C-alpha cells in the first residue's frame, strides 16, 4: 500500500503546469429598471378617442413600464359634442406568457420610483377578468376585484374621491376592429369586445389584470373615465409588466472604441445574459454575464498569387487596456442601433488586465432606440393637380404632375415630407378648387404597411390628407378616421398595403382656414405586414 501511494504521488507531481492558456475573463451584471412614459395628449379638436388614434408603445420590451395619463372628461360631465375621454394604448409583447397590468388612481406616484409593489404571493389583488376559452366577453362578476383583495397593493392609496369610477379593458386587436359604413358618412366604428377587464368600482384605487398574451400579438389597453367624484383627481398610472428577459436573447458586447454608438468599432468579445432575477420591490430585472474569449482583429489589404486584392486579418488573443460595454436585445452585436432596441445609454468602461479575472460596473439597460429617419424631403413646386371649374372635380391624369418622392426607406424607418399650403381664398368647408393642393408621388420597393401622419402648427386651419392609387382612384383619407390635427391615416383601416411596381398619389388640401400660407409635415411610418 505504501509503495502504491508513493508511485501515485510521483505521477501527480510530474504533471506539467498549464501554460499558454489565456485566463482573461470579464464578469458583470446588468439591470433593467422600470420606465415611465407620458401619455400623448389628445388632439384638441378630437370628437372622441378611437383605437386608430391610440398611443403606440411598439414592442413591450423586457422591462416594466408605467404609463401616466389623465382623463380629460368624465362621462357624467360629457355632452353630445364632448363625450367621455377614452385613452387607448397599443403594444406588442416581445414574448408570450402571463402579463400583469396594474391600474392605479387616487394617489400621486413618487417621481422616478415605482408606485406599485406586487401583491402577496398568490394574491393578485383582483380576478383577471379574462374570458373563458372561446368566450370573447369577460365573465359576469369577474371584472371587479374580490371583496377585501383590492387594497393589498403595497402602497398607501390615501383618501379616495367619492364615486370615482373608471373602466379598464384589454383588447385583442387581431379581432375585426373597424367596420366601414358608407351610409354613416364613411366613418369607422370600434366593434371589438374586451378580452379582460372591468370597472374599478370598489377597487380602492387599484385594479389588476393578469392575462396570457401571445408573442408579437397586438393588444390595446383602454381607460375610460365613467364617473368623476373630485375635479382635482383626473390622473392615473398603468403598470405594464413586459416580458421576462429569460424568455429572450439579450447580450453584452465589448468594444475598443466608444466614440459612436451606431459605429462602435471592433467587437472584442460578447456574451449572452443569464441568471435573471426579478426584484419585486423596485420592479427591476437583474442579469449576469461572463466573457471568456477576447480577440482583436486588424484588417489590411494584400494580394494573392494571382495579383488579386484580398483582405488580410491579423487576430490577437487577449485584451489588456480599456473596453467599452454595450448591452441590449441586439439581434447581432456587430449591428448599429435598430429602432425598438433596448440598450444602455451610458457606456460602461472595463479596465482589463491580461490573464486574470476582471469585473465591470453594472450595465443599466434604460432606453429604447427610436425609429430611424430614412429620408427627408421638401416639396418642389409646381406639384398641384387641376380642377375643372365647371364640375368642381379634378382633371383626370393631372395627379401625375406631383412631386416624385424617393422610394420608401422600408420597414422600421420613418420618411418625412415638408410642404406649405397657400390659402388664397378663405375656406368655408368645400373650397378645394379655390385653394392650393399638393400632390406627392409615392413608390415602395416591397409590399409594406404604412401609417401616414400629418401635422401643422395653426389650428385655425383644417387640412385634409388623402391617398389615391395609380389610376387616381380614392383609397382613403385621414378625416375619415378623425378630422383633427394631427391627422392620422393608417392604411390597415382599409386593409390596404402598398405594393412595389405601383404608383400612389398622396394629396394635401385645405378644407377651412384663413387666407395665408401654413406649413405642414408628413411622416410615413413603415410597419411591415
Strand tally is 36
Instruction: Please state the overall shape, judged from the principal axes of the Cα atoms.
Output: flat
Can you summarize the main beta sheet? 6 strands, mixed
The helix tally amounts to 2
Helix/strand class = mainly beta
Helical content band: under 10%
Distance between the termini: 77 Å
Q: Key features?
A:
about 40% strand, mainly beta, six-stranded mixed beta sheet, flat, about 5% helix
Describe the protein:
3% of the residues lie in helices and 42% in strands. It is mostly beta strands. The longest helix has 12 residues. The protein starts with a helix and ends with a strand. The N terminus is likely disordered.
Walk me through the topology.
Elements: H1 2-13, E1 25-32, E2 35-38, E3 55-60, E4 65-70, E5 86-93, E6 97-105, E7 165-172, E8 178-181, E9 187-190, E10 196-199, E11 206-213, E12 219-227, E13 235-240, E14 251-255, E15 267-272, E16 274-279, E17 284-291, E18 295-303, E19 309-317, E20 321-328, E21 342-343, E22 348-352, E23 357-359, E24 363-364, E25 367-368, E26 372-378, E27 403-404, E28 413-423, E29 427-428, E30 437-442, E31 449-456, E32 462-469, E33 474-477, H2 478-481, E34 487-490, E35 504-513, E36 516-528
Parallel strand pairs: 1-23, 1-24, 2-4, 3-5, 26-28, 27-30
Antiparallel strand pairs: 1-17, 4-13, 5-12, 6-11, 6-13, 7-10, 7-12, 8-9, 14-15, 14-20, 16-17, 18-19, 20-22, 21-25, 28-36, 29-35, 30-35, 31-34, 31-36, 32-33, 32-35
Amino acid at each position: 500500500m505504501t509503495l502504491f501511494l508513493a508511485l501515485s504521488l510521483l505521477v501527480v507531481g510530474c504533471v506539467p503546469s498549464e501554460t499558454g492558456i489565456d485566463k482573461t475573463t470579464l464578469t458583470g451584471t446588468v439591470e433593467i429598471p422600470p420606465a415611465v412614459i407620458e401619455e400623448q395628449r389628445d388632439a384638441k379638436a378630437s370628437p372622441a378617442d378611437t383605437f386608430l388614434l391610440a398611443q403606440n408603445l411598439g414592442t413591450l420590451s423586457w422591462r416594466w413600464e408605467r404609463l401616466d395619463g389623465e382623463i380629460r372628461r368624465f362621462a357624467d360631465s360629457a355632452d353630445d359634442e364632448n363625450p367621455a375621454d377614452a385613452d387607448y394604448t397599443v403594444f406588442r409583447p416581445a414574448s408570450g406568457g402571463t402579463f400583469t397590468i396594474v391600474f392605479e388612481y387616487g394617489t400621486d406616484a413618487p417621481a422616478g420610483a415605482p408606485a406599485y409593489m406586487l401583491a402577496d404571493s398568490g394574491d393578485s389583488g383582483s380576478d383577471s377578468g379574462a374570458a373563458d376559452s372561446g368566450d370573447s366577453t369577460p365573465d359576469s362578476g369577474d371584472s371587479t376585484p374580490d371583496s377585501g383583495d383590492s387594497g393589498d397593493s403595497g402602497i398607501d392609496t390615501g383618501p379616495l374621491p367619492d364615486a370615482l369610477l373608471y373602466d379598464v379593458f384589454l383588447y385583442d386587436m387581431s379581432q375585426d376592429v373597424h367596420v366601414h359604413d358608407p351610409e354613416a358618412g364613411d366613418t369607422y366604428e370600434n366593434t371589438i369586445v374586451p378580452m379582460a377587464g372591468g370597472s374599478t368600482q370598489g377597487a380602492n384605487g387599484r385594479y389588476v389584470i393578469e392575462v396570457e398574451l401571445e408573442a408579437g400579438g397586438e393588444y390595446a389597453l383602454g381607460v375610460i373615465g365613467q364617473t368623476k367624484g373630485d375635479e382635482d383627481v383626473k390622473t392615473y398610472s398603468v403598470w405594464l409588466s413586459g416580458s421576462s428577459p429569460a424568455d429572450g436573447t439579450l447580450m453584452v458586447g465589448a468594444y475598443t472604441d466608444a466614440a459612436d454608438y451606431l459605429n462602435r468599432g471592433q467587437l472584442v468579445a460578447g456574451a449572452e445574459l443569464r441568471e435573471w432575477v426579478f426584484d419585486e420591490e423596485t420592479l427591476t430585472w437583474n442579469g449576469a454575464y461572463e466573457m471568456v474569449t477576447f480577440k482583436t482583429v486588424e484588417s489590411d489589404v494584400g494580394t494573392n498569387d494571382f495579383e488579386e486584392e484580398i483582405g488580410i486579418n491579423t487576430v490577437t488573443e487577449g485584451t489588456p487596456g480599456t473596453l467599452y460595454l454595450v448591452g441590449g436585445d441586439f439581434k447581432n452585436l456587430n449591428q448599429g442601433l435598430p429602432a425598438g432596441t433596448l440598450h444602455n445609454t451610458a457606456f460602461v468602461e472595463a479596465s482589463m488586465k491580461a490573464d486574470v479575472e476582471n469585473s465591470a460596473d453594472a450595465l443599466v439597460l434604460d432606453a429604447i432606440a427610436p425609429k430611424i429617419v430614412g429620408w427627408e424631403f421638401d416639396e418642389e413646386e409646381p406639384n398641384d393637380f387641376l380642377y375643372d371649374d365647371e364640375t368642381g372635380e379634378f382633371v383626370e391624369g393631372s395627379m401625375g404632375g406631383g412631386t416624385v418622392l424617393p422610394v420608401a426607406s422600408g420597414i422600421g424607418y420613418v420618411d418625412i415630407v415638408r410642404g406649405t399650403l397657400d390659402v388664397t381664398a378663405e375656406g368655408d368647408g368645400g373650397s378645394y378648387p379655390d385653394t392650393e393642393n399638393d400632390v406627392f408621388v409615392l413608390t415602395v420597393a416591397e409590399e409594406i404597411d404604412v401609417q401616414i401622419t400629418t401635422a401643422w402648427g395653426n389650428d385655425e386651419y383644417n387640412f385634409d390628407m388623402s391617398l389615391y392609387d395609380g389610376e387616381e382612384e380614392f383609397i382613403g383619407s385621414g378625416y375619415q378616421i378623425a378630422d383633427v390635427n394631427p391627422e392620422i391615416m393608417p392604411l390597415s383601416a382599409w386593409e390596404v398595403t402598398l405594393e412595389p411596381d405601383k404608383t400612389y398619389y398622396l394629396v394635401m388640401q385645405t378644407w377651412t382656414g384663413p387666407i395665408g400660407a401654413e406649413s405642414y409635415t408628413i411622416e410615413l411610418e413603415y410597419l411591415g405586414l
